[in-house]
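Q: Structure tokens for this one, please.
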Amino acid sequence: MKKKQKTSGFMQGIFILIFSQVLIKVLGLIHTLYLTNKNGFGDVGNAIYSSGYQIYSLLLTVSSIGVPNAISKLVSERVAVGNHRGANKIFKVALIVFAFIGLLGTLLLFIGASTIANIWLEIPEAEMTLVALSPAIFFVAISSVMRGYFNGRKNLEITAKTQFIEQFFKTGLTILIVELIAIFTNTSTKFMAAGANVATTLATFSSFSYLILYYKQKRSEIAREIVSTVNYKYEKVGIILRNVLLVSVPMTISSILSSITKNIDAFTVNKILSTYLPTQTAIEKYGILSGKIETLIALPLSFNMAFSTALIPTISAAIAKKNIETAKNTSSFSILISILIGLPCTIGFCIFAQPILNLLYPNANSGALLLQIASISIVFSLLIQTTNGALQGFGKLFIPTFSLGIGVIIKLILNLTLLKMPSLNIYGASIASVCCHIVAFTIAFIALNKIVNLNISFSKFIFKPIIANLIMGICSFFVFVTLNCILAENLATIISILSAIVIYFISIIVLRIFTKEELYLLPFGKNFYFFLEKLGIY
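A: Here is the predicted structure, written as tokens:
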């Protein structure tokens, strides 16, 4: 019973995060669609916006991205054994340290904006976007520590809420600010790109403010928990700082390596393509990759991020209580879900690449083949998230760093090689990314399986999901071809995608990929299982 409650609690947190990510990505898609289809912005605007944003993301990664998982791991280990005082002390020390690091990142980006834009990126228009983004690093650094603290206390709802608040303000403020700039500057692409990133900074401040207010509201509850502390072990500030850094540094390095794959494109694509293509054409091709393709590819990654976020504190707490079986089963189930999320996204993008681009980007619908190639990496990217989250929960912090490091090296070598081939040009960057993710996942999965001997069967994890996706792909393509003859293409695309979701869901159930216990973990799973039992499926 306790085991089921623990796993149910884990899945409850997962569903809260996934639901929030659905809302966030809908808002994010509106944000991207607005900018891409805005007169005077388009693929060139995306190139300016994205190049600056990728540098910001790299500094953000250094200052804060690995922090929530690190703090979550350390806090959950202490909360699991009743040491609330120790957990709170870790939070306070980390807050001071990363506030300083975040401030340093803000200053570096602000001061170095000109050098980065003109010399590193060779896109001078990106300077203003970097300046506009610089204050956000400080706000996110502090917010990351607070999110990690609440995640470690199994309060994943706060992470979900703050991420939604941030995206809501980002989308709304982007539309407002860009429209005002377009009016006053006669649709200047450079100023609109900078304005879009001003909106990002204001949005990070909104989520930061919410976290501060929430923490103040919870201070009395936290104080009572501290009074009820058991198993408290005094730790000097220096030791706490060392422990925080020992956990956060490898996690941050792993996050940096994930971010670097995109920065490799930012530093190489435009420079190399410009050697044999007109400069404007090279910028447009990079804008297609960074603005449209990466946005679409990132959609399933954000949904799966819920598993890696929840895995770390869940497995860390289980290990602290010496409950290895719970950690093992949680890891295996999360890998299965990642496969079931990733495969249909790859199939869907391969089949409906051009119709999706026509639907979402009617004013800039190029890039179908690029999307098809890039989509192959989706399932491996999702599995990297999950396996790395499990490895970090088990305390194997440097394995994700090593696997991603090898992947980044492969990405860089292939980018420098393939982009120089005129016959491949921009497609070389996507091919390099696919190879990078395959290698990184393979290394991480082999390591995780050696540590815990995962419950992975060929039939359940590979054969049945592939069959379900083949059924979905063939049926949905037939639906699209049929409807496209009698309906407008956009309407046919929407109906075909919706039918694909239904067909895939039915295929998963008919093939009985989930066990009875796994179905119970899903929302209304118990009632759903009894319904399937009456139908004779289970």
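A few notes: The radius of gyration is 23 Å. Residues 279-320 form the longest helix (42 residues).
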